[in-house]
Amino acid sequence: AGEGSGTMPGDGTGSPAPERVLFPPTFSVSEIKNKQRRHFMFLRWKQQQRKEKLALKKKRRKEREALGDKAPPKAVPKTIENQRVYDETTVDPNDEEVAFDEATDEFAPYFNRQTVPKILITTSDRPRGRTVRFCEQLATVIPNSHVYYRRGLALKRIIPQCIARDFTDLIVINEDRKIPNGLVLSHLPDGPTAHFRMSSVRLRKEIKRKGKEPTAHVPEVILNNFTTRLGHSIGRMFAALFPHDPQFIGRQVATFHNQRDYIFFRFHRYIFKSEKKVGIQELGPRFTLKLRSLQKGTFDSKFGEYEWIHKRREMDTSRRKFHL
Fold first, then answer.
1. Preceding peptide of 285 cis, ω within 30°
2. Using CA atoms, how far apart are residues 2 and 15, in angstroms rounded to an integer?
3. Are 250 and 219 a contacting pair, CB within 8 Å?
4. Rounded to 5°, angle at Cα 257 from 300 and 202
5. Is pLDDT of 16 > 70?
6. With 0-12 CB in 10 A as exposed, 13-18 as middle and 19+ as buried, what is 13?
7. When comparing pLDDT for 258 and 303, which is higher?
8. How do the domains of the chain map onto residue ranges?
9. Selection from 231, 252, 215 nearest residue 294 by Cα
10. How are beta strands 286-295 and 278-282 bridged, if at all?
């Protein structure tokens, strides 16, 4: 066989395959008619690609070791995140205008320690078992939260009752086909209200290598990559759900990680293996949120004024454009 084609096992010739399979430059797996043969050739091609990549990586590492201090700096790999299109609303930590707005917005009483978070978690009408269990587990993550299952009671009637009972936030878990698929977060008494699409919900029993049940300690809160004005507002909404002064003795941490406008929630516990080594153990639940709209004031589906609405055809023209 020539160097460009190679002899493959099982081709009927009986000759052994070479140690390294080289495919012609114009090789296309899709041209192979036989499905099993096509799948086999694709796996061999992927294997060859991996070997070449590892060999090149090893070669570059040896060159860097030989050059020592004279080695050129490592190239930064191109990712969608670091190739992000610049957003004019990206917040500068030293911006006085942003600092003034945050000192006078709806969350200022919380950050000034004038209010203590008190959360009401409710559902859509007649929730199914999975949604019920998710609400119960979410209540163990957010301290001072209470679960209420509404039966035909409109949100417009629930909100005044929440305000009268000193609730600071209202969380509504919506479901479709017995699966939680939406989350509404309304800050009381003056808003704003955020609508999220929820996906990838995993309850505690569905998480592998999960830890024991969470304790009643106030967790630490981590907010990652909320860089724009809109992202700051969403991050402040999440922060206002948790009391001040986390109890670090509980070793629990709630993380809201924004990546490409998808907000990943994880709940972990630190495991101190030694003075220098620290591991984490997921407690659950976990879920992913995608912001659909941000509305001024409390929930009002008919006459509410929206600050921001996700319009897919207008906003999703570039994969490198993010809003949070």
1. yes
2. 13
3. yes
4. 80
5. no
6. exposed
7. 258
8. 29-65, 91-316
9. 231
10. unpaired
Instruction: Pick 11 or 297 by higher pLDDT.
Output: 297
pLDDT at residue 1 above 50?
Answer: no
CA distance linking residue 215 with residue 237, whole number of Å: 24
* 83: pLDDT strictly greater than 80: yes
Picking from 119, 126, 124, 121, the residue whose alpha carbon sits closest to that of residue 136 is 121
Q: Tokens for 26?
A: 């114009």
**Whether the model pTM is above 0.85:** no
- The reply to whether CATH 3.40.50.10480 applies to domain 91-316 is yes
User: Position of tokens 């055809």?
Assistant: 313
At 4, the pLDDT band (50, 70, 90 cuts) reads: very low
**3-state DSSP helix/strand/coil percent for the chain, to nearest 5?**
30, 25, 45
* Residue among 78, 34, 126, 15 nearest 320 (CA): 78
Token reading at 307: 């600050």
Looking at residue 206, the DSSP 8-state letter turns out to be G
Residue indicated by tokens 């035909």:
152
User: Is pLDDT of 302 > 80?
Assistant: no
